[in-house]
Every structure is written in C-alpha cells, then in structure tokens.
Automatic annotation (TrEMBL):
Belongs to the glycosyl hydrolase 16 family. The keyword Cell membrane does not apply. This is 1,3-1,4-beta-glycanase. One of its GO terms (molecular function) is hydrolase activity, hydrolyzing O-glycosyl compounds. The keyword Signal applies. GO terms for biological process: carbohydrate metabolic process.
Amino acid sequence: MIKSIFLLTATALAISAIAPIRSSAANPATPLATLTLAIPDETSATDKCRPLGTDDLKSNATVVLDRSFLDHFDVGARPDSRWMRSYFRPHSVEAAHTHSADEQVVYVDEEFSGAGRSPLGLNPFAVTDGVLTIRAFRTPAELKQVLYSRPYVSGMLTSKNFFAQTYGYFEIAAKLPVGSAVWPAFWLVPRDKPSPPELDVFEVVGKEPQNVYQTTHWAYPNGHASCRNAVADLSSRFHLYGALWTSKYIIYLIDRKPVGITITPPHMNDPMYIIVNLGVGGAWPGPVDAATPAQSEMQIEWISAYVIRR
C-alpha cells in the first residue's frame, strides 16, 4: 500500500462501464477454473508503467492460467480461517492492527481488545448472498482510549498464513467506496522478507473518486511505476481488478482488459501473499475531516489467484 503521494508515470485511460458481475455474461459469478487472457507484446515493458490500449493487443498473444486460490465468500457469515485479520507484526499489538503512524484507522474484528483486556465486539465484516462487505466507521467515543485514539475502525484480510504464490494472476471483484480520506486497496507483499517489493493491484483515494491506481514498488518512497485509470462507476458497480505478474513483466488489468505494463523488478521473485483492506486517512488520501463519511463500505464478490500454465 503506497506510503506517500507520488508522481504519475502514465496518463489516465478511461474504462467503460460493464454490467454488474452477477449478471454479466463476460464476467461469470464464479471465476473460471481455467482463464485465458489477451496480453500485449512483453517487449513493450519498461521501468515506467506504460498505458495500454486496443492497438497493443494486435499480436493476438494470450496466456493460459489455472486457478490456485478462490474465496467466493459463499459459506458462513464472516471470512473463514484462510484469512488473518491483522498484519503480521508480533512485536506489537498496535502495529499489527495499524498500517502507519499517519493512517487514522485501527483494523479490528469482534475478538480484538485493543489496549484493553476484553474483546470489544467491533465487527467490520459481513457476508450476505455471497458478497463480503468490509465496513469502516467512526470509533465509538467510549473506546477511543483503548483504540490508540484513532478516529476510525475498519477491517483487513491477509492470506499470509494460508496462501502465497510466486508469479501468476491475482484478481478481485469489488465495488469500492469513495469519500474524503477513504482508501481501499488490494495488494501483494513478500511472505518471507520485508517489503518492498510490493505489488498494488488497485488503490483508490476517495478524493479522486473515479481514479484507480495500480503500482509496482521496488523501493520506498520513490522507487515505483504507477498507472492511473478512470473508472467512472467504481462505487456503484462491481469491476474486476487484476495483475498478471511474471518473471519479466507485470500487466495491470481492469475488467480483464490490459491497461498498463511495466518490467518486473529484479528482486520481485519470491512468494507474495494477498492483503485487502479499507483504509481511512493518511499522507496520500489526506486526513480525516468533516467530509469523511461516518461509514463506508467495500463490497467483494471474490478474490482469486491463478498460476501460469507452462
């Protein structure tokens, strides 16, 4: 997840609206076990994120993918045991449930006790009709002291203890919130070493309600390649956000259409795991203010990963 504001390395592209995922023939309600994607010529990749359009797909090149992970959120009323609900930072409870000093949210579940001794019963997760909702909302005034004085609570999921993969295609079907200081994200970091590298499949900052950022990081804070694309209805319809990661290049996709390509950094070659979170406040999205929604929701229909068929 991007730690600070950065300069764009690509121009914005417009993404046309698609039908909601559940009713779209092009985007079936269950991700396919085998998926074929149209891809551009890999030699077009540089250390910048180069925007892609229809002309880049004239070579008719494709990649065949076999599914390696799927959570369709169709069992139970909460995310299952494949997911941790905090960062893996065993040295500090506060650090495990917060992203950085400037982000203004605590990641909780109903068992989290914060700085206290008893579970607080705050649940940001709900699963209804196969859709996971992650909710960010104002910290109850009476709990602020035990929640590190942060003004919002929210939810996050990480697959660190269950699933990680080197190379492949990673995808989420999601409807995203917007609003001042709101910061939803879907990203990958290494399982066995510190980040960077980092691969941001998508990030949205609420002050730019139509823009999706997709970024490869190789050094903090300034070593990155980023594409920005306009998705006019990202908060009203489900869209597919994906990244195809190979040993040579990374292709970013929206609704399975390639929209950007960059080279893979030399040290991005170890297993990476999934993080999905709904952040609030920070150096990039800006601080919480009077315009920040009292409650915001990110809805997720599925999270999936694929290996590249050899």
